[in-house]
Amino acid sequence: MGLTDILYEKVEGVAKVTINRPKSLNAFRAETIKELIWAFRDAWDDNRIGAVILTGAGEKAFCVGGDQKEKGDEGGYDYNGGLGGGIGLEVENLHQTIRNIPKPVIAAVNGYAIGGGHVLHVICDLTIAADTAKFGQSGPKVGSYDAGFGSAYLARVVGEKKAREIWYLCEQYTAEESKEMGLVNKIVPASELQEEADKWARKILEKSPTAIKMLKYSFNADSANIQGISQLSMGSLAMFYNTEESEEGKNAFLEKRPVDFNKFRK
Ligand SMILES: CC(C)(COP(=O)(O)OP(=O)(O)OC[C@H]1O[C@@H](n2cnc3c(N)ncnc32)[C@H](O)[C@@H]1OP(=O)(O)O)[C@@H](O)C(=O)NCCC(=O)NCCSC(=O)CCC(=O)c1ccccc1C(=O)O
Q1: What task does this protein carry out (predicted)?
Q2: Ligand 1 center from residue 117 Cα (angstroms)
Q3: ipTM of the complex
Q4: Could you tell me if residue 247 is inside a domain?
Q5: Ligand 1 midpoint to CA 113 (Å)
Q6: What is the mean pLDDT of each run of 10 residues along the chain (266 residues)?
């Protein structure tokens, strides 16, 4: 597959997937999601690969969610090829792929992990953060939400109260604060992030692949019901994107003006 939005490499049993749109803070569009799914599938099928690292290009961002500049006026993002992409992005398919690939996925968070980008690291098995990383959801500010793994699974990781705070207030959290709430496994200086992620991947490679696979399936089994919620969530999001309320969020962001949701509170 010709790759334009991601970088993909495999080195001695470790696959590394890098979202490569640094000018847009690694925001994803339909093509990005398609390529990410392809890369995770490739790592899944390659028996020599024992762990995958997901990271972002540049120093500023891991991923800041859906590319608001590629979001159309008629609902979703830039892809309308098939019913699976109801919001114009196959995000739900990507989430499933990251969860179901029978190998641990390590998020190496090198900067902003915001919105849909935050959801990506939440779904990964492990998160290693640069000391400069910033974490948070932003959907309700821009007329969007992830009512599947992005909220229900987040609540399992940080607890119900904290998850609700994260989504209702849309604040940003430092790497230190995120570690305290159980969102991050380890913090390292930014310059050591990729090396540390690689070290963790190599420690996993020393272990029994079958034991690791079955443990991942076992952890997943307990939250598998969220998959159904996730499908409903994306279905409802596709409808929400067609409303003036959602459009107001996106337009305010693009026009760099304060958002006005008050007119929808009546
Ligand atoms: C990330 C910021 C906090 C960074 O702020 P700052 O350092 O001040 O930089 P900026 O000047 O704001 O940004 C620099 C440059 O990048 C552009 N940019 C930033 N974010 C995006 C984006 N998401 N899309 C497109 N472009 C973006 C920005 O416009 C600037 O470019 P200029 O040319 O200079 O204008 C801050 O940038 C920020 O808050 N960004 C918005 C983050 C955001 O709202 N993301 C979408 C969230 S939607 C969501 O959370 C839904 C949840 C979800 O999981 C989901 C599920 C299913 C489908 C889609 C999504 C989804 O994410 O949409």
Answers
A1: Converts o-succinylbenzoyl-CoA (OSB-CoA) to 1,4-dihydroxy-2-naphthoyl-CoA (DHNA-CoA).
A2: 9
A3: 0.93
A4: yes
A5: 10
A6: 96 98 96 96 98 98 94 64 67 96 98 98 98 98 95 98 98 98 98 98 98 98 95 91 94 96 92
